[in-house]
Amino acid sequence: MLELFTYDFMQRSLLAAALVGGLCSVIGVFVVLRGLAFVGAGTAHAAFAGVALGFLMGWPPLLMAMIFGLATVWITGWVEEKGRMKLDVSIGILYTTTMALAILFIGLMKTYNAEVYGYLFGSVLSVTSEELRMIGGLSILVLGLISLFSKELYFIAFDQEMAEASGVPARRIFFLLLTLIALTVVVSLKTVGAILVFAMILIPASTAYQLTHSLTTLTWYAVLIGIACSVGGVLISAAWDIPSGPAIVLLSTAVFFLSVLLSRKRRRQPQIATV
Amino acid sequence: MASPLSPIIHFDHATFGFPGVIALEDISLEIQSGEFVGVIGPNGSGKTTLCRAVLGLMAPLKGHLKIFDCACDELRCHHRAKIGYLPQKGVVDRNFPVTVLETVMMGRYGALGLFARPSGNDRKIALDALAHVRMEGHRDSALGHLSGGQQQRVFIARALAQQPQVLLLDEPTTGLDITTQHNVVELVQHLHQELGLTVLLITHDINMIRSRVDRLVLLKTRLYAAGPAADVLKPEILSQVYGKDLVITERDTIIVEDYHHHH
Question: Of A143, B78, B105, B199, which residue is the least packed, with the fewest Cβ within 10 Å?
């Protein structure tokens, strides 16, 4: 088992998994608290349509993924802000439309392209040095922005209208959050794939949610759980020769159910004496 | 900062709503710095719209609204930070994973501006705000574990942590038991006196606030009356707004049947 760590591909995979696991978990905290779970799923499928178009036209697939992902979240946010439609309805329409586009683009390809499916299902064990650098660069950008605007992001996750009323530029921060979700999805496409990235965003934060009542502690727990499950999933994948994406997600799911069983929140809390 | 004699909030023939739906019509009203004003009216009378307008979240369709000498639709973040706001109970997810101190610290964020990190001084301001509402002993408690009255106190502390000039409270006693309602309104009155805050309190409960406010504002889409409680709470004025739902008992208690039917 230990000899696995001596292989270059394994070192790259573990580093990519740790970066993606940590990044998805941090953004997941805001996604879970702000109730944007469906946005994560919709963005992932839109980004996959971008990848498919990239391969069809010979354009850089990740750049196309980013354009599709950002366009989806911005249109969704704009439609919600204008009050034209609820967020889950607009993302639902874009989700299915972009998925239809992805199937169309794949259908238009003359030959079977296995690489496209790598972005759908993820393959962290085949991450190249160049991809790792891209993942590292985008992770630093996203984590840096989250760190810079963390207090505003927490506030809009708690109550966007109250944040706006208190003098926080809440609408701009909401669009920043949507942008960061899209970037996180793009960063994660290669490692966990378009279908499973949504789980990586949602599950570690939801697991941490079971364990604490403090925002700060919630974020740290989510990061630790996300990194541990991603790295653990890669090791299980390599040791048992099973696909890495499902290994990461199923391990995360097992930890989630364990946290539900152990959660102190599930136990009846004594009400603190009334005023 | 507005001088004590100038109006801190100035509605000038202002109409609010959405195209085709008028929520408040032709409102002219001045609220002076340091006043304690109660806003009353039946369901759907535009009380919450008035609240959103003062927060700069709604621009007038007609007329003008100035807050701190600034048109409400041009309010900048630093203006908004001067208005401490307590939203209606039920608007906020009370089970959100957040501690009492983390909640109150959010009151500092608007005033701090982007990029700035909360300092030790901000923490001290938040702790002082908790002390003002007598909740300092619960600073590490989960917000969701507190009683309704205690949560209201925490949200008032969050508003105080903004170091506001105006305290805007939207139905702060709804859903609380009668003793807690009195405690919350007493606390607001105490803060008004101790900190010299301008208070705008929106409520259904006329009897609870009539003896505590400087002025009452009676709304039903239009402004029906504004002035000292004794001038506004006259049967002939109230019956115009509440109609047959209004009952005034021999002990001068005002009962609005309509309110109880709707809740």
Answer: B78
